Amino acid sequence: MTELAEYDWRLVRDEARDGATQMALEEVAGRTAVEDDVRTVRVFSWEPSTLSLGYKQEAETVDWDYCEREGVDVTRRQTGGGGIYHDSHGDISYTIVAPAAEVPGDLMDCYALFCEPILEAFSRMGVEAAFASEPQPSLYEPSCFLRDVHPAHDVLADGKKISGNAQYRQRDVVIQHGSLRYDLVPDHHRGVFETDCERGTFTDRVTSIREEAGISREEAVAALEGALREWCGATLGGWREEELERASALAERKYGADEWVRERVVLERAE
């Protein structure tokens, strides 16, 4: 258990939601951490399937026709990096939200701290995972799982990427989120992008919990929830009604709006 356990934390075992709402909930949780002194760890999934773009990613890298045909939503994260295909099967996502004053100011130190429960979760799953020991070159820059591998925040198993993690600071709060691959789903990971990279390009670079440990998705989720909860001493909690209302409005104005998704423009609040 980390020293952060002296603070008030909640674990949100979240339901599957659309991508715009999931991103909005993280921003709302940041406000809750600063204003209400309640920190959040959560595990969640995406429904419908969603491509989350990195903050600076060009909209032209997306195969919009494929996404529309396959029913894949598109949103844009606050964090950088490449795009990630998420769904309610192959992806397991998490969020950690805490006031910036309570965590290391150095980015690498903060990554190391916030990834402690992620590495512990992999251990509980029976996956031998660790930070990348050295950089690996990019195979396809727009894709999180095919871009260059960074030892500070990319987690590998058997030499292949199994988790990507990213964080940002906003309004005196640190928000880290990440994607753990439960199953590969390589065709969708390639199909959402305007690329002709081959299937083997993805399967040679990326592995999954299912492939490495052979456990069920439910077992993997339970391991991640348990590791996060014990790491910070969280109590089981949920979203307050006002948080859900704020997230709904923010999803409509920002994370679900074409202006944000395609151009990084946030619409003004309605009077």
CATH architecture: 2-Layer Sandwich
Low-pLDDT ranges? none
Return the domain count: 1
Let me know the number of strands.
11
Largest β-sheet summary: 8 strands, mixed
CATH fold label: BirA Bifunctional Protein, domain 2
Mean pLDDT, to the nearest integer, reads 96
Task: Specify the CATH homologous superfamily.
Answer: Bira Bifunctional Protein, Domain 2
* Percent in strands: 15-25%
- The secondary-structure element order is EHEEHEEEHHEEEEHHHHEHH
Care to give the gist of this entry?
The chain has 271 residues and is an alpha/beta fold. The protein contains ten helices and eleven strands.
What keyword list fits this structure?
3-stranded mixed β-sheet, 11 strands, 271 residues, BirA Bifunctional Protein, domain 2, 8-stranded mixed β-sheet, 10 helices, single chain, alpha/beta
Question: What's the layout of helices and strands?
Answer:
Elements: E1 9-13, H1 19-36, E2 39-44, E3 50-53, H2 64-70, E4 73-76, E5 84-86, E6 91-99, H3 107-114, H4 116-125, E7 129-131, E8 154-157, E9 160-170, E10 173-181, H5 186-191, H6 199-205, H7 209-213, H8 217-232, E11 235-237, H9 241-255, H10 258-263
Parallel strand pairs: 1-2, 1-11, 3-4
Antiparallel strand pairs: 2-6, 3-5, 6-10, 7-8, 8-9, 9-10
Helix pairs in contact: 1-9, 4-8
Model description:
This protein has 271 residues and is α/β, with parallel strands linked by helices. The protein contains ten helices and eleven strands. The chain starts with 8 loop residues before the first strand and ends in an 8-residue tail after the last helix. It has a single domain (3-263), classed as Bira Bifunctional Protein, Domain 2 (BirA Bifunctional Protein, domain 2), CATH 3.30.930. Helix 1 crosses helix 9. It has helices spanning 19-36, 64-70, 107-114, 116-125, 186-191, 199-205, 209-213, 217-232, 241-255, 258-263, and strands at 9-13, 39-44, 50-53, 73-76, 84-86, 91-99, 129-131, 154-157, 160-170, 173-181, 235-237.
